[in-house]
Design brief:
Belongs to the binding-protein-dependent transport system permease family. With 281 residues, the protein is mostly helical. Helix content is 76%, strand content 0%. Helix 2 runs parallel beside helix 5, helix 2 runs antiparallel to helix 7 and helix 7 packs parallel to helix 8.
Amino acid sequence: MSTTAANSHTSNVWPVIKKLLMSFSSVLCLFWLVVAIFGPSMAPHNVGQVVSDQIFGPISSQFLLGTDYLGRDNLSRILVATRYTVGLALVASVLSSMVGTLIALLAVISPKSVEVVILRVIDALISIPSKMMALVIVAGFGSSVPLLIMTAVLGYAPGAFRIAYSLALNQNEMEYVKVAMIRGEGRLYIAIREILPNILNPVLADFGLRFVFIVLLLSGLSFLGLGIQPPNADLGSLVRENIGGLSQGAPALLAPACAIGLLTVGVNLVIDRISRQRNER
């Protein structure tokens, strides 16, 4: 009897935990989106202004996240840096998913010879580690916002292509596509109106993963000094420039590192939620 009661209690608790996680992930993602949009206008101090004589200052009522290695307000710098981290990753992930999906649709509806060429080019690109490619491109051509976006797209569009291509290839064999062909619909119509809507949900889930990967890539480049350049900064840059406070456990170092972690965790939870809802259907 006690075992049955325990199982019943567990079954009642688990849906509540899932709902809490879903709510937490949604609130977390919404929070970072709001910070990215309105953060610079909410910053209490000018992002480059030295406001304290104390470097790596502790959390206080005056400086809610302490001060950095020059005595600047760390909260203000995080509020501004989040826009670069979220903005660049969002643009790059949207472009990666769009480019990968469109090329996948093109490959599916193209003649076999064209499809083979596309697949071989994608195989060549996907065989190069994205971080290695990014390091070579940025080290060779310098660092700028357009180049960082292009580098991220070049590194992650092939992966988006692979996901979209496998989904589109399966849909291309479905009966509704054959019916559209018999009706005399063009290849472009079939790709856009028939195949794309039926692969959109998995592609959106993959888009979330691309976003997380690109956040980590751009933060890693900034930590190495190859990302956003001073006087601008993203969250990875803040970690790098305050690395001297590691031995002190300075908030100037821990806060941006935790921000990167919370951003990726929040997006991952939302992706998991989308995938679970799709599976339940």
